[in-house]
Specification:
The protein is mostly beta strands. A 14-stranded antiparallel barrel has the order 1-3-4-5-6-7-8-10-11-12-13-14-15-16. Strand 12 and strand 13 form a beta hairpin. It starts with a helix and ends with a strand. The N terminus is likely disordered.
Length: about 425
């Protein structure tokens, strides 16, 4: 089998595998903090510092700098989700554990090939994010819910990419973002009476939809040591979740929001590279994510055109990373990422289902060159527990009081890279 055919077989295989991955990957809100094992080990920095083929998912223009390579990785992700309801008139104060599902496998795959000295193509397959909660004891049982509660959102992106070198030091690139998105919710029956379509609100099994958008990137090597990158991702329009048309605003709409960011990469010494990224995620532009619960009390029921959502705010993330080549065969790295808090204290009640409260992530990793063509990369991510305490969070019609929500995360990953 030719190298080209082998690469394409690997692509199809990884697409199928990634399509089965569970979606509990939430560090920048419900977006992954980075894409690709090397970037993840360096705090998620990659807009101006491409180290493997998955970097094209952050900046398509980097494809012309990567040579011919293939990367396949797997992350094992463990979130720790919990909620406390207190001062509520319906029942006594209680803490709820959302970890009935504890471990999640998240595969990713990238391929880049040079067309000639000025252009390249590639494809990245990755989970851009997701959210999952699984409460064996239903927090909404005090309002009449039965059995367990939780949600699961999975987002798989397949991004074919083309890049072109404008000059010796500047390149541009574009990706088509193809989204495969799945969702289910369970145990939310007490809220269905506040929906315009209560039959399609909860316990409707998994629903899967497709979507598409574009990403544009620019990369400039300003000097031999300093590089600048910029990237913009459009809002990814997705089909409506018909099984949950009574839960999400606009009859089940749940698009992926637009993002944009810039990055710097500085080769401080021959072995040491420093990188810095800033990214903005526009959660509020998607009504199912950004609309506050208070829409319900302004006459907009769940599922309506301007119905309630999770009340998430737009966030800006700041990432810094360092890569140090100890020897030609061994590179070590580390990084830190900080995100704004997407969840306001007034919006914690519904976000018992999606407690994406984490703001700080610490990462470390290393790459070992097994041969001149083959390398192995590993990384670890730790996100300390962050709690958002409710303030005016539970409506009086549900007995008042407050919901406090918490999340902590740990992830380990490994990737194999092949330069060919």
């Amino acid at each position: 089998m030719s190298k080209f055919k082998a690469s394409m077989v690997a692509t199809v295989t990884m697409v199928a595998a990634a399509g089965l991955a569970s979606g509990a990957h939430a560090t920048d809100g419900y977006f992954a903090h980075g894409i690709g094992a090397k970037a993840k080990g360096a705090g998620g920095t990659e807009i101006a510092h491409a180290q493997d083929s998955l970097a094209i998912a952050a900046n398509p223009a980097s494809a012309v700098d990567l040579g011919n390579r293939l990367d396949a990785g797997l992350e094992v992700f463990s979130p720790d989700r919990s909620a406390v309801i207190h001062g509520n008139g319906m029942a006594a104060d209680a803490r709820y554990d959302g970890n009935d599902s504890k471990l999640f496998a998240v595969p990713e795959f990238g391929l880049v090939r040079q067309i000639n000295g000025r252009s390249a193509w590639g494809v990245a397959v990755y989970g851009n994010g997701g959210m999952n909660t699984d409460y064996a004891v239903n927090p909404f049982g005090r309002f009449g819910a039965t059995r367990s509660a939780g949600v699961n959102l999975e987002q798989l992106f397949i991004s074919p990419t083309y890049a072109y070198r404008l000059t010796e030091r500047q390149s541009v690139g574009v990706s088509l973002d193809i989204l495969v998105q799945a969702f289910y919710a369970k145990g939310l029956s007490p809220f269905a009476s506040a929906s315009q379509d209560p039959a399609n609100f909860s316990n409707r099994s998994k629903d899967t939809v497709l979507g598409s958008g574009v990403r544009i990137g620019y990369l400039a090597h300003i000097t031999d040591k300093l590089a600048f990158g910029a990237s913009w991702k459009s809002r990814t329009k997705a089909g409506d979740f018909k099984k949950y048309s009574g839960l999400f605003a606009e009859g089940g709409s749940f698009d992926s929001p637009s993002t944009y960011g810039v990055g710097l990469s500085y080769q401080a010494t021959a072995p040491l590279n420093l990188a810095f990224d800033v990214r903005k995620i526009n959660y509020s532009e998607v009504k199912s994510v950004g609309n506050p619960l208070s829409q319900l009390f302004l006459g907009a029921p769940f599922g309506s055109d301007n119905g309630p959502g999770f009340g998430w705010r737009d966030v800006t993330t700041y990432k810094v990373g360092a890569n140090y080549a100890i020897s030609p065969r061994l590179t070590v790295r580390g990084g830190y990422s900080h995100s704004d808090q997407p969840i306001a204290a007034s919006e914690t009640f519904l976000n018992i289902l999606a407690p994406a409260t984490v703001q700080d992530q610490y990462t470390t990793g290393a790459t070992w060159a097994l041969t001149s063509d083959l390398e192995l990369t590993g990384y670890v991510l730790v996100a300390p527990k962050k709690t958002v305490k409710g303030a005016g969070s539970i409506p009086a019609s549900f007995g008042g009081g407050e919901a406090d929500i918490s999340l902590a995360e740990t992830a380990v990953g490994v990737s194999v890279g092949w330069r060919h």
